[in-house]
Amino acid sequence: MGLIEKISNENAGLHPVLVKDSWQVTKVNYSQEYMVDKVDSLIINVNQGLAISLLSGKAVLIIRKLDENEPTLEAITMVRGTSYLIPENVGYNLIMEKGSQLIGVEGSNAHSEVGRRIPLTNREVEILKKNVNKEFIS
């Protein structure tokens, strides 16, 4: 082992690739769970945020925001070279095109602790499908 450690993971899904005491780097490779037809809930990282960046392909970040005290969903088309910081306790999910890859930095116990999931309503799912499918067609 040299001074520089090379870390790589091409397996489908989310994988911690470098874990330290208080943080970890995760690699997210496309898998079917990130298809628009599979998204039915939002993930909440309780008491810790997440920074995520698009490495390749196309991805849409879904977040729940409060508009005039009523929660609404926002679909953000991710851009390569841009990092997105999801604050702690904010609902989010990812929709990815086949072949896409993301990298993220989060708390080291983000996936060992039980995170919360917020189910989406049928109406929210339909709106997401309609809006996100437009992103992947273009």
What do these coordinates show?
With 138 residues, the protein is mainly beta. The chain is 12% helix and 44% strand. The protein has one helix and ten strands. It has a five-stranded antiparallel sheet with strand order 1-2-9-4-7, with no helix packed on it. The protein has a five-stranded antiparallel sheet with strand order 6-5-8-3-10, covered by helices on one side. The longest helix has 16 residues, at 122-137. 22% of the residues are buried. The mean pLDDT is 86.
Rg over CA atoms, rounded to whole Å, is: 15 Å
Order of helices and strands: EEEEEEEEEEH
Helical stretch tally: 1
Report the end-to-end length measured between terminal Cα atoms. 45 Å
Strand order of the largest sheet: 1-2-9-4-7
Helix content: 10-25%
**Major sheet: size, sense and barrel closure?**
5 strands, antiparallel
* Mean residue pLDDT: 86
Beta strand count: 10
Low-confidence stretches: none
Principal-axes geometry comes out as globular
Broad structural category: mainly beta
What amount of the residues lies in strands?
35-45%
Looking at how many chains there are and whether they match, the oligomeric state comes to single chain
Keywords:
138 residues, mainly beta, five-stranded antiparallel sheet, globular, 1 helix
Explain the layout of strands and helices.
Blueprint: E1 13-19, E2 24-29, E3 41-44, E4 50-56, E5 59-67, E6 70-77, E7 83-86, E8 91-96, E9 101-106, E10 116-119, H1 122-137
What is the structure about, briefly put?
This protein has 1 helix and 10 strands; from the N terminus they run ββββββββββα. The chain is mainly β. A 5-stranded antiparallel sheet has the order 1-2-9-4-7, with no helix packed on it.
